[in-house]
Amino acid sequence: MDSYGTIVDVTAHQLPHQMPWPAVGSQLRQRTFAQSTKLQDVLYEIRGPIHAQAARMEAEGHRILKLNIGNPAPFGFEAPDVIMRDMIQALPHAQGYSDSQGILPARRAVVTRYELVEGFPRFDVDDVYLGNGVSELISMVLQALLDNGDQVLIPAPDYPLWTASTSLAGGTPVHYLCDETQGWQPDIADMESKITERTKALVVINPNNPTGAVYGREVLSQIAELARKHQLLLLADEIYDKILYDDAEHTNMATLAPDLLCLTFNGLSKAYRVAGYRAGWVAITGPKEHATSFLEGINLLANMRLCPNVPAQHAIQVALGGHQSIDDLVLPGGRLLEQRDVAWSKLNEIPGVSCVKPSGALYAFPRLDPEVYPIQDDEQLVLDLLLQEKILVTQGTGFNWPAPDHLRIVTLPWARDLSGAIERLGNFLVGYRL
To answer: CDD domains, per this entry (predicted)?
Structure first.
């Protein structure tokens, strides 16, 4: 209606470049909202379409055995009582925002943790950022680091958040192979062959998710030398560094590269069984004078999210300073070790299936021999397993492995349940054999 009271068709006077969406006559067509193109290369199959199907089946009343995600609590792994008590006592003091980097006692505890590691480069509380789990910190670091087209070397297979976060930040994930015939150790020659002038960072996941490999010191030294030669940033994901089996020894990447900028990621989710608390950290070591702008970017993003969740920050100090109860679970007689052994032995009993013995972490990554199982679509395979056996696992290609011949299985269920599940997997696979 104009100033004289006449009804006016607004769309007839709207210039085309002013229209937010197409119009037909005097009627506005309903605007549609599409997914951002930034997400076109972003995948996270651990909680992808198969997981969504499992949720629908649960809603219908089916009981699903979830072997798709390393979530200790549902399998009876409870947090140490001292962590929960300390967190509850801290709640009255955790109602407001904290410093954007995290509360000082927790950051001091992180510094102290690594002071006890021989050869770990010295750093202080200003070099520590706490996060809502390691996942948030990975995303923040890559967003601060990458320009469009910058490349990041990531293992194959990998924890897919690294690939997804690289793509989301505008970077290009480039996967170097880990060699199954060598216990899933990184292939150094393949790694070096994929370094270009656009390569900016190198990711090391050790102990590895999904393979359970623990990298040898010599291999890590070679990786450090490559980073030194090509002036690459080292990103060390070490969330499973306390979950080690048999005689496996973990070497922190930063100890072999004190002269290089290295970001070490870790947290409470796995070793302390509090995945839901979302408590992680990143420690920055090495020369920082040539990375001022990058580090300012991390600080900016930390400020933008205000702070990590404050109650969980209070769990860090007591967790790192108290009894390390994870040792009771991985030593002989420990539940995690027993379950690793059961998973490994039962998988290798299935005809045409082989599995490298995991030396750490919470997973097995068995291979299905293509000459026995001519699988073309491993996503369909895991969907069929879900529908027929009510067992949820993740396909190997979901971890950026290039062939549809692997699965990742979580080793967290009780040994008897794990044994039964793998027997059912073996019976299911009979239908896929040549």
So the answer is: AAT_like
